[in-house]
Write a structure and sequence with these properties.
The complex is a heterodimer. Chain A is of the alpha+beta class. Helix content of chain A is 46%, strand content 10%. Chain B has two helices and four strands, in the order E-H-E-E-H-E.
């Protein structure tokens, strides 16, 4: 069978926007057979339509190509999905975020204290990786030091080469992550049974939650924890990396943000639009249907390419320009957090982490510049940079 | 009580129409439309739920 594109071609991963443009113009319902048959929609109008119609385009078969079955939030539709969102919503509410902002500022400040004298390094390892990991660990109720050692790799979780059944959405009990999660769950269940006050975090909410008069099983709690841990760390890492990379690549844009800090939220939003941390996620049709005149049987995997919708010239003015002055009312319509019932619950948190990190980078790392080309992530649906080699003007040594 | 949406804040996530389809629907572009502007007492808990679940905090109940 012929293929219209190859997602696993390193060239695609290096220049996805060019490939998206070609598909939008020539092949709006693109087919590939690697590693088996699936399709992609790349035009904004198509991505919007598929995400809106969750009854036809279900998530019950998972957001990836392969699916182990079960799952939470991103892998279920109503009615379970409504329960899941209500359960988790409080942890990510703007009121909760307001309470967290000071802690995030303090965290980023302390991380910068630790390396500012060096005058250079890889900003991914120094900031973009640890900030989201530590923030999500605290929110969930995990030990930040421990989870940094078991940095979750979303590409291992969702890569189609991972055989179904080996997918570690919740952390398998045998893995170090699974064992650690289990010990935390056991500890909280003991506290709950003894009537002790539990810490105010997501793990406590999950352990105490009731659904139709029953509590969540360990497996379900583990499913939530594993998913939120992964969804809350690596994608935000990539967002932070891409925003800073594009600003460094476009010094005129960097200058605008440096001279007007009110542009920081716009810069983060434009970074999200320009480089969707996740190229796209899959939906599966619940009955035979037709897209752009192509008939497909039930249970066909179709990816909604968020990154392509973010660059569709039918929807955006000059989509290839990274423009921090693009009106926020337009920029906010990007697809990097999805749309519709599965809209990313962590979006407000990701935006906050991005804005705080960017502000402190601008404040505390003057003269920041790229020294060499960043390595691009080459992993299936993930998009961003793996490294961000930079230098800055280190502060003068303090006088004794 | 009136139910309002601040469209400057709205991110078109579609959560309101999803959580409370009696009170909101989405137009073709994905923007929410209020179906019941003047709330009956029985609708108030539903409206409060939508306001809580909105990731943009764009929904308000005003007197």
């Amino acid at each position: 069978m012929s293929a219209d594109f190859d997602f696993f071609d390193p060239k695609f991963q290096k220049h996805p926007h060019e490939e998206f443009r070609r598909l939008q113009a020539q092949c709006p319902f693109a087919h590939t057979d690697n590693p088996w048959d699936w399709y992609a929609v790349t035009r904004e109008a198509d991505v919007r339509a598929l995400l809106a119609d969750w009854e036809l385009w279900t998530s019950n078969s998972g957001p990836g190509l392969a699916h182990a079955g079960g799952g939470v939030l991103v892998s279920v539709d109503p009615p379970e999905h409504i329960f899941d969102r209500r359960l988790i919503n409080k942890a990510f509410s703007p009121a909760q975020l307001l309470a967290m902002e000071g802690d995030i500022v303090k965290l980023v400040d302390e991380l910068i204290d630790g390396f500012v004298d060096k005058g250079g390094g890889d900003l991914m390892q120094l900031l973009a990786v640890p900030v989201p990991l530590i923030v999500i660990a605290r929110l969930l109720g995990l030990d930040p030091d421990l989870v940094q050692q078991m940095r979750p790799r979303a590409d291992m979780v969702i890569h189609p080469a991972t055989p179904p059944g080996k997918i570690e959405m919740g952390g398998q009990p045998a893995s170090p992550q699974g064992q650690y999660f289990q010990s935390m769950i056991d500890q909280r269940r003991k506290m709950l049974a003894a009537g002790e006050a539990m810490p105010s975090d997501v793990l406590s909410s999950l352990v105490a939650a009731e659904l139709d008069g029953r509590t969540l099983t360990d497996e379900e709690v583990m499913g939530f924890m594993g998913f939120l841990f992964i969804a809350g760390s690596q994608t935000t890492t990539q967002m932070i990396g891409s925003v800073i990379y594009r600003l460094l690549q476009n010094p005129d844009q960097m200058e605008k943000v440096r001279s007007d800090r009110a542009l920081i939220p716009n810069a983060v939003e434009e970074g999200l639009r320009y480089d969707a941390p996740v190229h796209g996620l899959f939906r599966t049709n619940t009955r035979p249907t037709e897209v752009h005149g192509v008939a497909i049987p039930e249970d066909t995997k179709v990816i909604c390419m968020f990154g392509a919708a973010n660059h569709d010239p039918e929807f955006w003015d000059h989509p290839e320009k990274f423009d921090v002055e693009r009106p926020y009312q337009q920029t906010k319509n990007h697809y990097s957090f999805g749309k519709g019932i599965h809209y990313c619950m962590g979006a407000p948190l990701a935006r906050l982490e991005g804005a705080v990190t960017l502000r402190l980078v601008l404040d505390r790392l003057p003269g920041l510049k790229l020294v060499g080309e960043p390595e691009v992530i080459s992993a299936y649906v993930l998009h961003g940079v793996e490294t961000l080699p930079v230098t800055w003007d280190a502060p003068a040594p303090r006088q004794a | 009580m009136r139910l309002t949406i601040n469209h400057d804040l709205c991110l078109k996530s579609g959560q309101c129409a999803y959580m409370q389809p009696d009170l909101f629907r989405l137009d073709e572009g994905g923007a929410p439309v209020v179906l019941v502007e003047l709330l009956a007492d029985s609708d108030i808990p539903k409206a409060q739920d939508a306001a809580t679940m909105c990731p943009a905090q764009a929904i308000a109940l005003v007197t």
